Amino acid sequence: MLRGDGPLKSRILEYLRVNGLSGRVRLINRVPFKSLPRLYRSSSFLVHTCSREPFGLAVLEAMASGLPVVVPDSGGAAEVAGNAALRYYPGEAEELADKILSILGDDELYTSLSAKSLKRAESFSWVKSAGEYLKVYSRIAGG
């Protein structure tokens, strides 16, 4: 299953058609926010391909669901994932494919990345974020 949209969508659809994969890979459109937990529960891992996204919320959501993640080695997704993800150089399709195959072929790696995802996601709790904002506001206010 592939979720998302972007400039490569038509090329992906053509690749799937030409290689007889259309029936094996499903592209889905935008998913309502309330349906995201179910989507993540039905997924095995997340591959994030946008290297220019400023934060990487989808990466954080997937990690909080215990999914291993593969992210480009730049941008917000890489910062969010930290050392809990497999990284690839943006534009290097073979390297990305190798990362995906390593997750699929190595149960130990899968389990390790899943645990790292859950641990890393804890760093982004609302309670922690609110506390950090309060520190900043307090410092600005002189208290």
Can you tell me the residue ranges where pLDDT is under 50 for at least 5 consecutive residues? none
The assigned structural class equals mainly alpha
Q: What's the tally of helices?
A: 7
Number of strands: 5
The arrangement of helices and strands along the chain is EHEHEHEHEHHH
In CATH, the homologous superfamily of the largest domain goes by the name Glycogen Phosphorylase B
Identify the CATH architecture of the largest domain: 3-Layer(aba) Sandwich
**Which class of the largest domain in CATH terms?**
Alpha Beta
Strand content bin:
5-15%
Overall, the morphology is elongated
User: What average pLDDT do the residues reach?
Assistant: 91
Helix content: 40-55%
Distance between the termini: 51 Å
In total, the number of domains comes to 2
Radius of gyration (Å)? 17 Å
Largest β-sheet summary: 3 strands, parallel
What name does the CATH topology of the largest domain carry?
Rossmann fold
Which strand order does the major sheet show?
Answer: 3-4-5
